[in-house]
Amino acid sequence: MNTLIKRSLVRFTSKSHIFTNQCRSRATKASLLSNQLVDELSGVLGDENVSKAEVIREQHGKDESYHSGQPADVVVFPTSTEDVSLVAQFCNRNNLPIIPFGTGTGLEAGVSAIHGGVCVDLSKMCEIEVNVEDFDCTVQPGVTRIALNTFLRDTGLWFPVDPGADASLCGMCATSASGTNAVRYGTMRENTLNLKVVLADGRIIETAGKGTRTKKSSAGYNLTNLFVGSEGTLGLITKATLKLYGIPEAMVSAVCHFPSVQSAVDTTVQVLQCNIPVARIEFLDDVMMDAVNRYSSMDYPVAPSLFLEFHGSESHVQDQAKAVGELCEANGGSSFQWAKDADERNRLWKARHNAFYASLALRPGCKGFATDCCIAITQLTEHVIAMKQDISKSNLLGPIVGHVGDGNFHSLLLVDPSSESELQEAKHLADRMARRAIAAGGTCTGEHGIGKGKRHLLKEQFGDVTMDVMGQIKQSLDPKNLMNPGKVL
């Protein structure tokens, strides 16, 4: 019989979201409507689950991106799918925008309330249900990836999709997140089996069928993948059923340094072409390595580098490492610096995950203009080099890092938020990077999403006809354009 584990994570006291300090909202029509209707909202959810406090609204109006924050008129904290449905019905009746909020770790201003409205913070919904023998789980949107893996610790299972930030798992579905393990385990698209979604009018659906958690299905349209990556523009995800994996018998990490960007990226391509099943293969350029050394107290050479990890049995891990080591040496790479015990591996990958903040520390007071594109792996070398050359000719500093195992790489362009010229230069560089990828058959974003900053690039990638089809889907599910308006389309 299948082992079922079900529990609700308690992350708050009952008073966590009671805010008594009120403030005057912006003098807009939307904010005036919110003032008039806040009592009705409080009647729906309870006073403790509704806030108009300025600090709370500001907090919920911004993410980690360079975009300026735009707060909603009110923030609500539902505790169930039924609560979310009631909020959606309320907003639909009163023509109020709905903006979902997970953990605020996005990079394309997906939580910005461009037109005001109601921000729906889903963090109070924290139930986890695990089917151990079936290798799957169902989580509510308040559950983050670290919380899930902590919960799974004694089951021998784990969830490997790792974007770096401790993001909400339902938020990761909404943005089609991936990260360092995607080369072996795939992205959220490949690991999401079913979603419970509240539509704009309050209706509740399960995208693969009620309670369905099979690994495959030929039944009907693939609505699950329609909502994965929809960024809150089609509905609010209130539950996600996800694949789980057995924790590998052995995990070994390594770092290798190279004389040039070309030799490091060429090594990555050769590793994949040789069908070596690496779990992680991450590229950091010399600027990023300098940032990582400073921020995380490392002493690695300041040179283009690969961070790698191997999963499997003890013998398979050794075979993988040996084969990759030979390819690295053939391309002029240094000998591996190994991280075999868990603490050392965690330290290495924490340094890699802190690359965003390490980059910001290179220029205190700056904002990070995050770029992101994805291309075929055989074109990686020329595209990474082209971006590095563009940055070197500019007035900006921009470390480069990439999940190069699946053709996805990024640069974090550091800009003075008060300098319009620097911001425009960063936009120019980011657009050049994305347009090169599109021209080569790639995509303008591999994992950051579109948000409000890349809508022009989405149209260039897909063209008018496909964009019209997307618009028709949006119109069908959200005819009043209330779901996260101003994003994606």
UniProtKB/TrEMBL annotation:
Claim: Nucleotide-binding is one of the keywords in the record: no
InterPro entries tied to this protein: FAD-bd_oxidored_4_C, FAD-bd_PCMH, FAD-bd_PCMH-like_sf, FAD-bd_PCMH_sub1, FAD-bd_PCMH_sub2, FAD-linked_Oxase-like_C, Oxid_FAD_bind_N, Vanillyl_alc_oxidase_C-sub2
This protein's GO CC annotations: mitochondrion
Catalyzed reaction equations: (R)-lactate + 2 Fe(III)-[cytochrome c] = 2 Fe(II)-[cytochrome c] + pyruvate + 2 H(+)
GO-annotated biological processes: lactate catabolic process
Family according to the record: Belongs to the FAD-binding oxidoreductase/transferase type 4 family.
Protein name, UniProt field: Probable D-lactate dehydrogenase, mitochondrial
